[in-house]
Amino acid sequence: MPAPRHAYVHVPFCRHRCGYCDFTLVAGRDDLIEGYLAALSIELQRVRDPLELDTLYLGGGTPSHLGPDGLRRLCALWKSRLVPAGGAEVSIEANPLDVTDAFVTVCRDLGVTRVSLGGQSLDAATLRALDRDHAPADVCRAVERLHAAGLAVNVDLMTAAPGQTLAAVERDLDAVIGLAPEHVSVYCLTWEQGTAFEAARRRRDLVPAEESVERMMFETAIDRLEAAGFEHYEVSNFARPGFCCRHNEAYWDCRPWEAFGPGAARFDGRTRITNHRSTTTWIAKTLAGEDAAGDVDAMTAEQAAQERIVVGLRRREGIERAAFQAASGLALDPLAGAAIARWVEQGLATDDGSRVRLTRAGMLVSDSLWGDVL
Ligand code: SF4
Questions:
Q1: Short-list 313, 331, 315, CA closest to 323
Q2: How far apart are CA 78 and CA 246, in angstroms?
Q3: Is residue 23 in contact with ligand 1, taking CB distance under 6 Å?
């Protein structure tokens, strides 16, 4: 297996835990930052020879929460081992509130090319309903600052927020299109076990949107973003030409990647190793020189190929049979032929004999299809 050309660094700190979020993070625990940096420097020693990278992604949590000085310290840890090649994509996730002039300067100094903003909405009521700590004007200001510095911008948008109407989603889409980001990711709110939102749903304090309304919101997002010149290149992702997220494309191509930090999952093409999700446990184990892996998923060739089907079909370009066989060593049809035929019959996929793609109807229900092939 060739050395990975993609790496992910997980930064688990947030100012505040949004009520719907079940990501690997700690909120209001900046006292752990020193331990995190010390543990990360140890975990990075796993890389013996410097890795030349096509993409590097700093995700979270909220990497921008480290602030300009923290980000410089983080970069000093990785830079001898993770080396972005010329033309590499270097992405960082940011809270709009953190996008100050000093943050923009540090991004440029560190070679960041792309900033992904957790905007979620440009409507004050929706942001409040989502328990976010920023205002619409913060998102607008952040995009302007980043564009002025020549950085590409992704804006995350959330649909089906509590109380959000279809008209509010339309206004959000128009507002985000008006900001002219290079990339937009649209996610439908999910009600995850253990979150404050899920507890409120059980008490009937919060009511999820009807499934048919959720679907209309997502169809509206596809229509408006495509009409504005964005390519809908993956179930949740839209990009102007030339601005697809190359890091995520590596995941969807099942290329090997490295990953560091609590909850971070690395993949060598067959085995996925996920670090311990608890930030404190990951720090303690790493500092003690113990293995901080929480889960090891060693896939058979067949399981790896099944996963390749799922991530491949999430993309608008779908799966090309010959390329699939060359990459996985297995033919597509013995693994998924029956499911594909059924989806085609139901109008959820197209199959021209060489390439299989989900239709828009298939994209809208994609999560419910994967059980047919896994
Ligand atoms: S800022 Fe992002 S990662 Fe942090 S709690 Fe909110 S949704 Fe989760």
A1: 331
A2: 20
A3: yes
Does ligand 1 have an atom closer than 6 angstroms to the CB of 189? no
Distance (Å, whole) CA 195 – CA 64: 23
Q: Are 244 and 236 in contact (CB under 8 A)?
A: no
pLDDT digits (tens, 9 = 90+) for 113-170: 999 999 999 999 999 999 999 999 999 999 999 999 999 999 999 999 999 999 999 9
Residue for token pair 């790896």 = 304
Locate the ligand 1 atom nearest the alpha carbon of residue 14 and give its number: 4
Q: In a mutational test of the pocket of ligand 1, which residue from 13, 62, 154 has the highest number of ligand atoms less than 8 Å from its CB?
A: 62
283-302: pLDDT as tens digits:
999 999 999 999 999 999 99
Q: Which of 260, 305, 250, 239 is nearest to 43 (CA)?
A: 260
pTM: 0.95
Which domains does the chain carry? Answer: 6-252 (3.20.20.70), 318-372 (no CATH)
Provide DSSP, 328-371.
Answer: HSS-HHHHHHHHHHHHHHTTSEEE-SSEEEE-HHHHHTGGGTGG
Distance of CA 76 to the CA centre of its chain: 24
Ligand 1 atom having least distance to the Cα of 17: 5
Q: 117: closest CA among 63, 193, 174? A: 63
Q: Write the residue with the smallest CA distance to atom 3 of ligand 1.
A: 61
Is 119 a pocket residue for ligand 1 (Cβ < 6 Å)? no
203's tokens: 């008490």
Q: Which atom of ligand 1 is nearest to the CA of 132?
A: 6
In ligand 1, the atom with minimum distance to the C-alpha of 20 is 7
- In tens, the pLDDT along 44-79 reads 999 999 999 999 999 999 999 999 999 999 999 999
Q: Is 62 in the pocket of ligand 1 (CB under 6 A)?
A: yes
Residue owning the nearest CA to atom 8 of ligand 1: 21
